[in-house]
Amino acid sequence: MEFFTVILEKSSKLVLPHNFLKMLDSHRPQNMKLRQAGNGLRKLWDVEVVFDADGHMYLDRGWKQFVRAYDLGIGYFLVFRYDGNATFAVKVFDTTMCRRRY
Fold first, then answer.
1. Which pLDDT tens digit goes with each residue over 47-86?
2. In this structure, are residues 62 and 43 in contact, taking their beta carbons and an 8 Å threshold?
3. Alpha-carbon distance 57 to 81, whole Å?
4. 98 vs 58: CA distance, rounded Å
5. CB hemisphere CA count around 46 (13 angstroms)
6. What's the CATH number of domain 2-93, 3.40.630.30, 3.40.50.2300, 2.40.330.10, 1.20.120.1200?
């Protein structure tokens, strides 16, 4: 499954789409891993998953470090691809509308 998000504000957590949560069925992971798409040899970032009282799913502890490491800014477009093993491959597009290469 793939989904995208646009960074609209600085935040220490990122809400995940409700349809992604539905795809997980009743599984509620406590942690996920993030990596830069296109290079499986890059660092994996451990990110805690939390749920609020309304059932929304967020990437929490560790998300801020991922944002800092890849210098993600307001207006950046991120494409997340879930590999089914609690890991997301993330493509980053900056405000020039081009994919960033790290």
1. 999 999 998 999 999 999 999 999 999 999 999 999 888 9
2. no
3. 16
4. 26
5. 2
6. 2.40.330.10
